[in-house]
Here is the input.
Amino acid sequence: MAKNINLKKLISQMTLEEKVGQLIQLNGENFTKSASEITGPVQSWGISEEWLNKMGSTLNFPDANTMVKIQKKHLENDPHKIPMLFMMDVIHGYRTIFPIPLGLAASFDPALVYECSRMAAREASAGGVNVTFTPMVDYARDARWGRVMETAGEDPYLACVMGATQVRAFQGDDLSDKEHIAACVKHYAAYGGAEAGRDYNTVEVSERLLREDYLPAYKACIDAGVRMIMPSFNSLNGVPSIANKWLMRKVLKKEWKFDGVVISDYNAIGELKTHGIAPNMREAAKIAFENGCDIEMMSNGYYENLCSLVREGVIDEKDVDKAVYRVLKLKKELGLFDDPYRGASYEKEMALALCPEHRAIARRAACESAVLLKNDGVLPFSKDVKKIALIGPFADSNEIKGFWSCHGKDADCVTVLEGVRAAMPDAEISVANGCSPLWNEKSTEGFAEAVSMAKEADAVVLCLGEPQTYSGEGNSRADIRLPGMQEELAKAIIAANPNCAAVLFNGRPLALTGINNCPAILEMWFPGSEGGNAAADLLFGNAVPCGKLTMSFPKEVGQCPIYYNHPSTGRPKWTAEDVHQRYASNYIGCGNLPLYCFGHGLSYTKFEYEAMELSGTRISAEESLTVSIKVKNAGKYAAKETVQLYIRDIFASTVRPVQQLVAFEKIFLAPGEAKTVTFTVTEEMLRFYDADCKHVSEAGEFVIFTGYADHRYKEARFRLD
Ligand code: GLC
Here is the structure.
């Protein structure tokens, strides 16, 4: 078969069972283990060898050798020689792991995100992956939700930019190019709106807010050409996404005209029974198929029922043909009919994995994702320090790659201890865990040793955080402080030696009030394979922090959900003090402001925003506005700064956010250097969804400002006519 294979003719030659086989996806182990070795739900399905040979795709397999083995066996048993599709979650790296997406987005550097995704695609493709279940672009406002680690945070615009960038990086301009793989945008839709931040929980969001904040990033990925989409587990306004006619038919197919492949999430069709939407798998399969789900991942609805649903005339075989066509079209685009292995090679896979070039990209990404939350002057530490104490459960831990690290290994991750040793070879370095990072381990036995070590040191690094299993899928927290006795440890260490900086490893915003007296706090997220080297680069000034938060860090978990782009209220109270104001929308004992807000991030140098000039005072559909912002590096470190531009629509027919990011640009400035950044603001950027869900802009006055959320360095006003 060659590039010009006639798919419609191929489909016409296939039996119904062979067609349905193309619409089923099982884990890789089902194709490498014998039936007796298979465990879990598939074992109970009693899938025959004959049926296994019909399956059109698989997910989760260890390496290129396994992919080749599965593909070879499949092709030997498929009369039509239709290659299988191989899919994996390449979320933030394949074997070379870069920061979790919530961290990488904090770089505010789409070019860096592109480079990291290109690296991941090269490694994954060599490993036999044809499709990645990436980008995850769910809009998230609640730090209790464990999957915030996979998102770009609380800004819809940033989620659009980061999602589309990843699609272009993974897919390139030609999917048959063996170093590119297909992308799958997920989880459609509003999975991040789970009530109370509990994973898989109910989502109730108005159509207006869905269209305003939750849906744009999926659409941005579709506009970027993403080939696949994955509906989410959650029910949305009472109906699980995969059964949600409004979502799947009205929006995805009719409005957006998505003609790529729709794949269920893992057993999501089976969960229609658990949701109470379908009484049995036959009904679940019918509902999912009629709503446009092409491939069923790891449940047996299609396997057990699709053929009979067709033969009983409930489902039209023509619709099965259309679904099969979408799947085969993707295989053809990927060049699988020409080369079913797409150049997959274990030797190439392992040569690329963690190679110096890839480690260098991961190290730079880890540096640029880090956010300096606080610095009373202790950082960067002097390179002359002789005695360094590394204290805390992450001081000598390689468990810093985060959830969804594909084939990345903890053992491949550089620890803080290893990084500091490499950066400061002549220093005397002492290490003490001090305490456990686990929420239920309250021992303080390690404090005494850690305190005495801190007293003896010239510089102390507190290495704190959450276990990497406390975020990611199914890992929500009701308490988002540092778990265990880490706050108490930090208090004791800071008291013992004020020349102390905390370095944090976590997969979500944390409530840091308990350690906010630490003289410096550096947020590293889960930085991946090069985390320890990046931490050392930043601690000792070989790199300068430039990350900006993409999610607000609350003072208390009780403030969640808390996000910068909130609507005003009739009784707003956004002031710093925590004094309770009666009859205002705030908490007794805790104000409404986060501890650290979206867009915040310090540097070792000082940036001065000298001027902001507008080309005029009016915008119209025909005439845009140019905004020029002059920034100077008034400090002594060469450094990068993300210039952020926000607007506020003063009044409109619906309540508008008190501020919203509309543009950003990252610049590099040498000490003393100044640059002018220019943005164009158009009428289209001012549009929003009104109460009737019409996408409109409305005449009126706007404030425009630079700085970051809640901190305005320069501001001006303009009118939309
Ligand atoms: C998981 C996740 C989804 C992932 C899929 C395959 O349950 O929800 O993000 O892509 O299964 O691993």
Observations:
- The CA atoms of residues 552 and 598 lie 5 Å apart.
- The chain is about 30% helix and 20% strand.
